[in-house]
Each structure stands twice: as C-alpha cells, then as structure tokens.
Design a protein that fits this description.
Blueprint: E1 2-5, H1 10-22, E2 28-32, E3 50-53, H2 57-61, E4 69-72, H3 84-105, E5 109-114, H4 138-155, E6 164-169, E7 171-173, H5 186-197, E8 200-203, E9 216-217, E10 219-221, H6 222-237, E11 245-249, E12 255-256, H7 257-267, E13 274-277, H8 296-300, H9 310-322
Helix pairs in contact: 1-6, 3-4, 5-7, 7-9
C-alpha cells in the first residue's frame, strides 16, 4: 500500500491520479482532514483502498508491514497562518512522527517542502544548500525547520528512511485547487474574476524597479509537480532510488503574473483586460517579488521529462478543466 497524506488536496489528489493512470495502482490510503465543503470532489475520480482522518494515521500504521511508501503532502499551506503553534504541530511534529515511523520500518518517505523557504530570494533559489535561508512567514519557516531537521538526521548518522526526498514546490497551479480559496493560484482567480467582472486585478509594482503586474514567479503545472514525486516513488519501489535529498520542483523559468493572467484570458478565447490594485497590508514585507528554481539537481538525479510551458499548462487547465461542467481531474 502507498499512503498519501493531504491526498484530498491539489497536489496529493493529482499524485493519486498519476498512481491510478500511470502505475495502475489503486492500493492507496488517502489521509486528510477535509474542512472545505466541496473538497471531497477531489476524490471523486480516484481509486483508493482507504480514507483516514489525519489524526487516525499514526495508530493505523502501528504494527503494519504492508506499507511500501508514504508520500506526505499534508500541511497547513496558508502563507498567512499566524498561529505558530498550529504550524509547529502540523508542519513540523506530524512530519517528524511520519519520518521516524518510516525510518524505523525502513519505508520510503517523500514530503512537501516549499519555495517559501527561500524568503526574499537574496540567497538565490538553489537547492544545493539551504543553510542561510530566511523565510518571510511562519509557514515558510515551518517548512525550512523540517528540511533542516531531516538533513541533521543524515548528518548525525541516525536511522533514516531508505529512500527519502523533500520537494520545494514553487508556484503550483492546476485542477483540484478549488478548495484553497485565497491561497488558490492566480490562474484560478483570474478565470473566476474575469468571468464575473470582465477584468483581473493584479498588484501594483510597489517595489522599486517592478512594474505593475510584473512580479515574477516560477509557475509549475500540478501535473508536472506530481510527475516528479512519482518519479522518485517509482524509483524507490523498483529499488533504483534516486539520490536522497531536497529538490526544487519548478520549471526553472520565472514568468510574470501579467503573463499568467493574460494566458488565462486568451485560453478563454477572450480579449485580456487587467487592472492594478494596491497590495494588502498583511502581505507587505512578506511577499516574494521573484522566484525561479534552479533545476540542475533534479536533472542530475535522472529526471528528464519536460515541464509544461506556462502557455501549455494554462491552456490545459482552462480548457480541459475550468471551462468544463466537471472541473475535477
């Protein structure tokens, strides 16, 4: 069996889609805590064996010897979360418990980190070293803390999972993100806002040298993000594990929010229209103006599959999901 925490989330449910469609696996345990009234629909097209609430998982794992891997995507992912105690419990301690179980039972472990760990980018976006990073918010720090903790287990020669990897996801967009509300991608918000009002509101360029709407991100399509995770999983299952470590998952090419919004509207076969607004106060000083993943480490690990371009990813998302009656993958 393969356990996916956060399996009803965007990335987790698409990882399960890959397992169903690419590996022909349905012996999947979905672990989550669904709080949004529509999020269950992320599972309607999935084939899986069990569903567990996240607080049931550790007891359910006790004494089991049939788990082939744990893919840990579950987390508090809101960059605006201010209750640090909740972040510690969910993003750090829960992850440590799963890592320890996998280490003790010699089960492969793959988990979600985040590009939010890179902070304002002054140290670059290179996954070769994470020593001097300074995240801009508690969410990013919680992910950075666990990355550092995992590496310390290795450095101190403690027992670790036989195969493990942490994935620093950059700006993931695509189907099954509909429950994320404010934290959903700008692609999703553009489709809804433009459909309702005929325009899309983007932030003004409040930083010197940044024009309106020209804040840059490494936008990665969720199908590509899931494909990387499943590359590592498939290698581990076939005893050909890729090197253990922490990896960026992005495209390696930053694009502007203006590009993203324009491509959404063009994919809708409509004339683009954008207006610019001030940045909310709760984001000021905690906002990344530029992200771009260094991708050489992933390539050296043997991953050669091309990533969707922004144009191709947005077109697939808009035309094959957002514009359809059934928007779920």
């Amino acid at each position: 069996m393969i356990v996916i925490t956060g399996g009803a989330g965007m990335i987790g449910s698409i990882i399960a889609w890959h397992l169903n469609t690419q590996l022909n696996r349905d012996d999947i345990v979905i672990v989550d805590r669904i709080t949004h009234e529509a999020q269950w629909q992320n599972l309607t097209h999935r084939k899986y064996a069990h569903y567990l609430d996240k607080d049931q998982l550790m007891a359910w794992l006790e004494g089991r010897n049939d788990i082939e891997a744990i893919i840990h995507m579950g987390a508090i992912s809101a960059t605006t979360e201010r209750d640090f105690n909740k972040l510690v419990e969910t993003n750090i301690q829960y992850s440590q418990n799963l890592w320890t179980w996998c280490a003790n039972n010699q089960v492969p472990f793959f988990y979600a980190s985040s590009a939010a760990t890179y902070g304002d980018g002054n140290q670059g976006y290179d996954d070769a070293s994470i020593e001097n990073l300074r995240p801009l918010n508690g969410y990013g720090y919680s992910k950075h803390f666990f990355d550092q903790w995992a590496l310390r287990q290795v450095d101190n020669k403690l027992t670790t999972p036989p195969s493990w990897a942490g994935f620093k996801f950059f700006n993931v967009y695509g189907p099954n993100e509909y429950h994320k509300e404010r934290m959903a991608s700008v692609a999703f918000h553009t489709f809804n806002q433009f459909s309702a009002t005929g325009t899309m509101k983007l932030f003004k360029g409040t930083k010197a040298g940044v024009e309106d709407g020209m804040q840059m991100r490494d936008f990665v399509y969720v199908k590509d993000a899931a494909a990387v995770v499943n590359f590592f999983l498939n290698a581990a299952l076939n005893k050909q594990a890729a090197p253990n470590g922490i990896y960026n998952i992005g495209t390696g090419k930053a694009r502007s929010f203006k590009d993203l919004a324009t491509n959404v509207m063009q994919s809708m076969k409509r004339e683009p229209h954008i207006t610019f607004i001030d940045m909310p106060e709760d984001l000021q000083g905690k906002y990344q103006y530029f992200t771009e993943a260094t991708m050489s480490k992933l390539a050296k690990a043997g991953y050669t599959q091309p990533f969707h371009s922004l144009e191709d990813g947005v077109r697939d998302y808009v035309q094959n999901y957002l514009m359809q009656e059934d928007k779920y993958c």
